[in-house]
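Section handout 9: paired folding examples.
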Amino acid sequence: MKVLYRPVLLVNHEATDFYRCLPVRLKNGVETARGKKALRYNNEIIETAEKNARVLSLAFADLTRAHAAGKKVRLIVPINSYAIASGDAATLIVKAIRELDEALRAAVIVEVYEFPKSLTLDMLADMTIPFLPFFDKFLAEPRPEMTDFTMFANSNYFGVSLNLGGRVEKGEDAVAVMTKFWAEATNRRLKVVVQGITEQDVADKATQYEAFALDGSLLGADMESMTDDA
């Protein structure tokens, strides 16, 4: 595993150093998956946790170096819900989190994703507990079929993310998907993060909706380091 960093645009904010951590899965040195799918659950909870913990360790080390170099960057890090689905798995994730200096934890947003179909409010609360002593901002990527985001609002998540890079819809269809997503999130007073944007019309509409943040190849190329110039 290795990590890349995707520049994130904060809507209605001045230029800022904001990135999303992208895990990269390698096989014989060749990239086989990039982004959250590189940490996809494969029926092995501990294996998922080990890979996710490794990604966090790499990202937090890079975040530390960036701040030491004078760049006050902020970072969204992915955590697969299955990586915290058991006590032993959650212990691995917490161990990686503890590697980050307490002074830098305010610069991190945790994005939890790949929730089980059977997700309940109690399950979501249990998943969130391991992060509460360390971070104060949590983002959730709802499953594509979810149409009610109430449980995220009730669990103190500040926002929800829509990953268009993982969907087949393009053009007007992508805008329609985003509009429906935005309406439900806004109804629950959740911020909206739109990821994987490749089309200007989609970016324009997301900006019109005052989404909290945007990213994608249209807005900035993935980077090896957060200390490089975007």
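Moving on to protein 2 of 2.
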Amino acid sequence: MGQQIQAGLKIIALRDGTSVNGYLRVENTPLIQRYNDAGVFTPDYEALAGDKKPAVVPVLVNVSDGAMLKPQTLAWKYNGVALTFGEDNLSTNEGMEGVFERDTAYQANYDGAARTVEALRVMKNLVPLSGYDNDRISVEGTIEVGGSQIAFSGISTEVVIQKSTGSSYDLVVGDGTLTKESRETTLTASLWNEGSEVTDLSGYTFEWKMVQADGTEKAFANASSGASQKVVAADVDYQARVRCTAKKGTDTVATGFCTVTDYSDPVVVAWDISGMDGNAISPGQTATVTPKAKYRDSGVEVAAGAWTWSVQDNDGEPYTLPGKEGATFTAESVTFGYQDVASAGYGINFYVSNTIEI
């Protein structure tokens, strides 16, 4: 039987065959804040109730079984500046006093169950901590897998800061996960206008599509026109990028994206990375990336041969590596240097696919 497997190089740590995926999930209220010339912020984070203030949650997942991992150490940064906290867990950095709160007992949901994690709450308005433009929250730290310490870094999420125009829509869709226990998930889009959630969705329709590695879109077999879309394992080959477009009549008002990852297939992709540290390359380094097909449960490698690759630059546009004829090609591995990554906007996205006989 042939199993189609796909993967994107979003690995943040790799040691002894263990792969870890990570992202920051924003809950309660999106990290989108607008301002006007009168100094009014929308939404006003300071005025929100505690359970409505934005909470940034690190989600670290063991690729082998889809289990959520709890970091042993965790350090938060705002625009690259390490945040410091007092005994009350409020930030103490100059100019950011009390803006953030470290919540070490935050309750998040993952795979249908409540999880106690450390989250970063936004307690005060973020305009203008570093000017009237977009900012970034990031996290780094360590986790323990199989007795080994694995360091991770570079996990971040954008803070959108814009001047109010009187009618600016945003569409927010959370990421989804499929596991052996949960073979389906429901994605839910929330529509926001000038920082306030649109609760009356009458007159609005939602178009859900899967965005494939080559940029083409594919409709769901069970496509929804509402604010929720069910995704089942048959829809996803390891990982699917999903686009949701909100329309009022025939007019598009906002578009949002999310990622659904399937940790339930028997064979998965593990990445063999050499020549650099983790997924960060430094000047003078030359790295080789080799995808491996392995049984999820045992870790035993499965013969795969050559892979179909699709390469994108940091902005998601097709990118051709030196020596290749295009952004899509067939190979068992790729080798690249620091300057190749720099030329791609200091970030390269690799996507691979293959059909494995099991």
